[in-house]
Amino acid sequence: MTPDKIINAIEVTLRGPMKNTHMAGFGPDAHLNEDLHLDSVLILNLLLHLETSHDCEVPERELSKDSFKTVSDLARFLAGEDAAIETEEEIDIKVHCFVSCLCAAIKARPGMDHRPFYFGVWDTGFHIDETSRLSYHGPSVKHDHFRHWFRRLYGVDVIGWYNKDDSKAANLARFEQLLNEKNETEHLMVMLDLYHLPERENKFNQNPFPHYVMIEKTDDPDIWFMHDPDYRWEGTLPRAAILNAIGQPTVEGGYIFDRAKASDPTDGDLRDYFDAVFDDTRNPLIDAARKIIQVHVDSSTPLDFAALDLALRELPVIAIRKYAYEHGFAVFWRALDLPDQEFEEWCDEIEALHQGFRALQYKIIKLSASGDAAFAAQIFADLDALDRREFHIKAGLKSWYIRWHTSAFATGEFPLAMTGTNR
């Protein structure tokens, strides 16, 4: 099929079965995310429609590549002409918004290393509700663990200012008071619903989209400065728009902390932190996905195939946390002065792990749409393969930790708190 015919099929699909409401700017140069508001899961749904209804061949092995940004890119990709497609020079990685805000404060202190704080983020908790739906945010997701270890490692108290027992108006008033009174080195963190900030790019198009950012005043009282370390975005936005996003009933939470009080972690605390968070006996996200799929394919339960797409829709948002492994390897790579190639090889493994989740998501969508049990068998096999890869990564990271631990005890030096560029 030619790219022109595929573009026509894309338009028919978006206007028809997918009922996309953002088609005013549709055309070959329209961006899938920014213009058409297609997140990664909706793009996979689009590919499924093109494959099943328009006989477009979707090369599954290529789903791991970030090969298309525009409608034309996607059409050429499906037509087998993707070699000439220009991609972004840097992949924008979102790992964990709460952790990223805390780490931004450490990065602002010259000579201090924030990367050890990402230990364990690859297995950070998520929520599964009574309908077996997976969510990156929910009632069971708490941040006390990070607050405790941030205080122990860096000596900084992360003080909660948001009171869930108060009204929204009272919390918004408290937020503005803190914003007016805080000093230059204090960071004011707040949870807002990013879906209600259309001025901000939202690649996941989640609704709602609870997300932590940090806010500063500007010379204009009606304009505030937003720092979003996790999305690597900063800029000014209207005060009213930010307050509206904070005031949504879908979000609640906020903290304040002072980077001026930060100090380097002790060797013992770093060792204790790694030991406390590192678990090489299980991979919680893979275990959860396997269990959720099993519940949906089990004929004895009230759930069915059709609900599986929604149940695991947020899997890509959580799977992005696997990139935290890179921070873990980077810590020991620099401390042990290991060859760059060894670090890059592990980064390739981590990339393959994350992209494996993307390929898995496509099969989950196929299973949900078709109800074909054959897809279930493929998915369980893929989960087993992902399990093996993640255990392999954990074994590699543990071996580097043991090398550092052994070397440190032999020399009496624990050189983790050192500066260096991040991958």
The portion of residues assigned to helices is 40-55%
Number of domains: 3
As residue ranges, the low-confidence spans are 83-92, 417-423
Strand order of the largest sheet: 3-8-4-5-6-7
What's the count of strands? 8
Characterize the largest beta sheet: strand count, sense, and whether it forms a barrel: 6 strands, antiparallel
As a percent range, the share of strand residues is 5-15%
**Oligomer class:** single chain
- From the spread of the alpha carbons, the general shape counts as globular
Order of helices and strands: HHHHEEHEHEEEEHEHHHHHHH
Q: Kindly report the average pLDDT value.
A: 88
SS-based class: alpha+beta
What would you report as the Rg, rounded to the nearest angstrom?
23 Å
Characterization of the model:
Helix 1 (3-15) crosses helix 3 (71-78) and helix 2 (40-53) crosses helix 13. This protein is α+β, with helices and mostly antiparallel strands and 423 residues long. A hairpin with a 4-residue loop joins strand 6 and strand 7 (233-238). The protein has three domains: 3-84, Non-ribosomal Peptide Synthetase Peptidyl Carrier Protein, Chain A, CATH 1.10.1200; 97-112 and 131-261; 267-411, Four Helix Bundle (Hemerythrin (Met), subunit A). The chain contains 14 helices and eight strands. It is globular and about 60 Å long. The strands form two sheets. It has a six-stranded antiparallel sheet with strand order 3-8-4-5-6-7, sandwiched between helices. A two-stranded antiparallel ribbon has the order 1-2. The chain has helices at residues 3-15, 40-53, 71-78, 97-107, 144-154, 168-181, 239-246, 267-277, 284-297, 308-311, 315-319, 324-336, 340-370, 373-411, and strands spanning 127-128, 134-135, 159-160, 186-193, 210-217, 223-228, 233-238, 254-258.
